[in-house]
Amino acid sequence: MPPMKLKQPPNPASQTLTGTSSHARLLVRETLRISANLASAPPSLAPSSSLVAAESTGLRPHEANFGLVDEQFVDSSLRLICYEEIDGRRWKYFAENGGSKQFKKGSIRAVGLHSPKAPVDDLMSFIRPYVVPEGFPDSVTPSYVPYMTWRALKHFFGGAMGVFTTQTLLNSVGVSRNRATPGAVAINWILKDGAGRVGKMLFARQGKKFDYDLKQLRFAGDLLMELGAGVELATAAVPHLFLPLACAANVAKNVAAVTSTSTRTPIYKAFAKGENIGDVTAKGECVGNVADLLGTGLSILISKRNPSLVTTFALLSCGYLLSSYQEVKAVVLHTLNRARFTVAVESFLKTGRVPTLQEGNLMENIFTFPWSKHRPIVLGPRFKDAFQDPNSYLAVEPVYEKERYIVTYNPSKGNIYALLKDQAKSDDILKAAFHAHVLLHIIHSSNEKQSSSQKHRENENSILMPTTTDLQAHIAESYKMVSALYGPFKSKATEQGWMMSESLLNPGRARLHELVD
């Protein structure tokens, strides 16, 4: 009979020793593995060493990133050198202590203090350098964002419109028809482009007006752009008139292109806070190109469904013109052209205060085009336009003996005329325009008093014809008011940020010369 083996009860002490020894072996193995990894890790993996060191000292995670050096690395050979920040992302630089308060050469390690970003944030970080200037928003004025928003919308509608106009022109010229020869198509297309270039050159002579009435011409150029697009779409209805219609449309669109190009730099200059006009211009054009591409892509998808050209043109044109209007209204300029000067002077005469830059630009009338002849004040006119009667000139000439201008009212034409003398400088032109507005204000006030009993005005914008005696009294009164108010007006306008040293009032070229005996 084989010997029987008795099963002994498990010894708790031996189990405890076995578990403890296995845990110890596992801990030693992991410690050696981590030490080996740290020893062979490149500098880019240094954050793990800092975290291990922090955990070994019992620090919390946020203390590991932002705690003091002595508290973080009590038992570590790494010491903090400095902090660095790049585009909102922070870094720490460490070096290995070599003893004697010196660091080992080549031991610098960088530790990032940023957490992984969401994909959307990474996408925005990638796009941001392409669409906003460096240092945004501190590098541009507050009006930059609304302007670029409306500009992007305008280019979006413009890009969408371009697909339909190009498709219509190609169909009208005969590209899709077998009977059209390639030579005839090419000649018609070249003639169309040539007519546009001629129109561009002829309109370039209006260059100075681009500075005087920047917003008005910018909006007028966009109106011409949509007019040209409408004419191009009209070639679909009368393809036999392709050449004259396409030439007319291209002339309008090239004139609009000249206007847009000429007014671009002053607008971007108004947004730049420093010497970063090039950066602002580049980012603005990039935004326009991106929006144009998006509009083109969407329009290609829509065009496959053959929508109504009339409906499409109406919707896209309304969006384009609305965006264009809001775009120019968002521009805040510091200079005074006729429209902004009128707003500033009228507000000062009525309320005693000059509007701020934002208020003055917002109240500026965009629809007062430079070629409009219906203006109550004419600055720098010819003598024959201001005076029909020589006696009227002799009556007012002594009043302005000390001035370099003469302001009068012509009852037959219903306009205020500010004639400039040959010695007139920039400030004299500004004062003459201010005097003209004061005289207009006095005549309007006199008319309002008379209108309660007499209804001589056909509309509220017309001026009652004062008698010769009343006119001389009004001129004398205006001279006294200008002497008292012109200085305070300039001071308050300067305080609000308006540039009074240079104006864009666009006076006429006629000058009065004194008689030489």
TrEMBL record:
Q: Which InterPro entries match?
A: RUS6_N, RUS_fam, UVB_sens_C, UVB_sens_RUS_dom
Coiled coil: which residue ranges?
Answer: none
What name does UniProt use for this protein?
A: Uncharacterized protein
| Family affiliation | Belongs to the RUS1 family.
Q: What Pfam families is this protein classified in?
A: RUS6_N, UVB_sens_C, UVB_sens_prot
Q: Which residues form the Protein root UVB sensitive 6 N-terminal domain?
A: 20-117
Occurrences of domain Protein root UVB sensitive/RUS (ranges): 122-351
**Which stretches are transmembrane?**
none
The Root UVB sensitive protein C-terminal domain sits at 354-507
Region annotation (Disordered) maps to 1-21
Record the organism.
Davidia involucrata (Dove tree)
